[in-house]
Design a protein that fits this description.
alpha/beta; 8-stranded mixed beta sheet; 3-stranded mixed beta sheet; 11 helices; about 20% strand; globular
Length: about 400
Amino acid sequence: MLKTFARDLPPPHIRAHPSQRTASNVAMAHDEARAFFASDEALCPDFVLAHARELKASLAASLAARPAPKCKTIVVVTSGGTTAPLERTQVRCVDNFSSGTRGTRLVEEFLAREDVEVVMVQRDGSVTPHERLVVDSVEREQRDGRSGVFNAGVDAVGARGRARHALDAFELSSSGREGEPSTATAREPHRAHVEEAIRRRAVEAKRLTVVRFKTVYEYLAYLKVTCEAVEEEAKSRGGRAVVVLAAAVSDFYVPWRDLPTHKIQSDAHASANGLELKLSPVPKMLGMISREWAPSAYVVGFKLETDANILDAKSRKSLERYSLDAVIANELESRYRKVTVFTREGDRRDLTIKENDASASERSAPQYGADTLEDQIVRDLLARATAARPRP
């Protein structure tokens, strides 16, 4: 049985005025952040906090050492989903479906601008910039059934027997002479994608830094120090930081103090009642970015819902509650065809791709540039960040 415990809200007739709610949210965010990052290990393990301190120093030194001319715009993009461990050994966890596709595509489009540097806060093992170009090419071949590599894995009911893998884009060729090594070459259907991925990775490597996380503890701790380091470096360059929060962050977790040390034993919960879990709300620290961690940054949140009827209202609420500059709203079924940008100035703008491109986009087709929804998002956000007035 899964139980979640939400914060109690007062009845509607006695709820606070919006200005009072804002002040209350700020105070709550400060309190929750202070408790989460405390050294008592009640909510977050000390080894994660220690690693975060090391990360901040390393990241700050790396950004400062960039050769001139340095990019004045530094963008933090979070990508992928967080896990909520159920034991300290982290054998079992609560996870979500995010593969990091949106965040990765945004990173690719930000890096396509030569005057932008990117720090990607990425879920370990999630989709990687440019590598997806090769993986998606393999997936299309698998889906279209053009390769015997994949046809060999089709069983009697037509199920594909092999998962996609970037190595399936290559083949080994041999001269036939004994002692000579084989040569790995890209197969013809994938050669152009392999070359494009390698070219882009080589050109953009000096403007991309990757910070990897897995658990929600790591995500929050690493996001804090990343924002602080990027804010300081952007200001020293006379530029501005932009923070784009595309990661799918856990809403519920088990505080560190409540986690068992060892793996939960299945035979101890084999009765009819099964395993009962108590999950607590993850501390809401999104507002800390604009208020403390990176106060001069242009901060962008994402809101994903399965019910389109509540999406607009919840997006506008996030703008106020977390002091965001913009929220990108997307509905689950149409997220690769359409998004809506809401801003703190009250603007609302729909970004869409052509219907005839929609099916390709939803299949993660390897595209860059003007035909993609992510390019539209990046162009819109960079223009708004440049023109935005300082946050009150």
